[in-house]
Every structure is written in structure tokens, then in C-alpha cells.
Amino acid sequence: MSQDTIMKIKTILHAENGKPLLTNEIHKQLCSKYDYKRSEETVRRNLKFMEKTMGVVQSVLHPTKKTNAWIYRENSDIETGLKSEQSSYKNDARINHSEYIKNNIIGAWLQQLPKKSDIIFLWSEDIFPVEKDEMFLDLKNHIKSEYGNPFDELDTFKQILHQFLSKKREIQSLNDNIFESIKNDYSDKNKMSWFWNLNAVTDFIIERVIRKRKIDFRSIVVDDFSSHVEEKNGAFLYYTMDYPDEMIYASFGELKLSKKKFKESMDKFVETVFENANNSERIQKEITALCELQEQLFDHIEKMRKSLKKHLALGILPGNCEYCL
Hints:
alpha+beta, Arc Repressor Mutant, subunit A, two-stranded antiparallel sheet, 10 helices
């Protein structure tokens, strides 16, 4: 039986002050007052349950229509029992809803918060799949203000993330310009064709700059850069050791190099790209700004994490919503 329907039927009969109503009359009032969508037979089953199990209504003979009708049964003990049952139902609904929100929204959100070391590899603003859950925004109804508001932190995080990704794309574009200018001269000499994985190269440079807390591309190449070459389908493929994705594809044209010479040549090429980047004041400036934005992002991630953990530790979430009433 629907507790919501039972309470509405009770309200309708109580307002009649003892005047009996037919089942179809109760059904009509449910439809007109509460936009009720169920059948008259469903109403009849609820009325029988209310009479036999709860004792809050009574079937009587309608004085004029000489058929079965219903009245509200005035009884303080029954009223007390109904209130107790209603309270129990609400408590159960709140408990179940709290558990769902904690497990499927708060818990999932916590798991999706990026680590500080992962921030630099972000290329998209869509990083929290939990936001697609239809109950995500319902959590706003259950925020305990003294525990902080993770939604406020999320809004600020997204604003900074937008700036952060714009900076990354600016650096990416600057790196690409440097690469293209060197590549063209290099290709003319060596008759080679290329594929430059710009995201991987940009991440490689930025991640090491941020980790080392200094902007020195030459030392990055010397200290960190490692590579290897594979031969496949008549072409040499040049990889970094640090990423599963290829930084560069390179294939031969007229000039044939040994695998060793090709690797040495490509290492020198990449070092030249990094050296030119090192001499770019614009790139230096953008990476410095990017480092500052990364720190701001992590600060808001930690504030989100702290607030979410406090809410997760609550037995029953505060606040009300349609799922708790």
C-alpha cells in the first residue's frame, strides 16, 4: 500500500466531518486535488487496508444511495498509531535515501577527485562522471553548512580548471609552432614524414617542469628524457619511455638511416625543440602561471574532499527533499 495515498485519503475523509463518501467520490477528489493517476480499484484496496489493518476508516451504508461508503474513524489511539506509523515510514525513507546519496553520490565523487600529480594531465573539463547521476544535485538539499559546501568548491574549481586548460592549450600551440619550424628544416634534409603527438609532448614538458619546480628544458632532457625506436611496416617509430602513447611517428623517405643513427638523430631533434622552448619567454611565463593554477586547483580539491568526507561520516544526512517526505 502507498503511504502517500493513504495519507491523502485520510485527509479527504477527515475534511468531510463524518459525511460518508463513495469510493468513486474519493477517487475523483484524489485526481482533482492531487493529480492522482491510479485506478479506482487501487483506491478501494487502500481503503480496505486502512479499515482492516490500520482502523482509521470505516465502511458504512450510504444513507441515500444505499451502497457501501467510507467515513473517517475518530479514535485517539488509532490517530496515535497512525502518526507513529507515518513517522516510522518517514524515518525509513530518510535512512534509505541517505544511504543511497552517501554510497552513490558522495562516495563516487570522492573516488573521482584527482590526485595532485594527475592534475597536470587533464585535458577536459568533464572529469566527474558522478555529475551525470540524476540524484547528484539532490545532495544540495542535504548539505550541513558547518561542514563546508562541496558544490561551492566545485564551482570555483571548474572556473579555475577552465583557465588551466586554456593555459595548457596556449603552451601546446607555442610548442607546436617551435616543432613545426624545426621539423620543416629537418624533414627537408632527411626526407622524413612525421606525426607529432602534441598532447603527450606538452604533458611531458609541463609535468617535469612542475615536478622539478624549475623551468629548464635542457636539464629536463638530460635528466629525464629517454626514448626507444621500433621498426614496423618499413618505418621507424620513435617513442618516449615515459608514456604509453607515441610522442612522434617518423618514417623514412629517400634517405636510409640505421636504427641507432635514427634514434640519435631524433633525440637531438627533440632536444633542439626543448632548447628553443627554454629560450621562449612566453612559454616560461605561461608555465609559471600554469603552476600557480595547479596549486589553486588542488586547494579546492582538498576542500571538496574534506567536506565530502565529513558528510559521508554522518549517519543520516540533514535537510529535506521529496525522497524523504
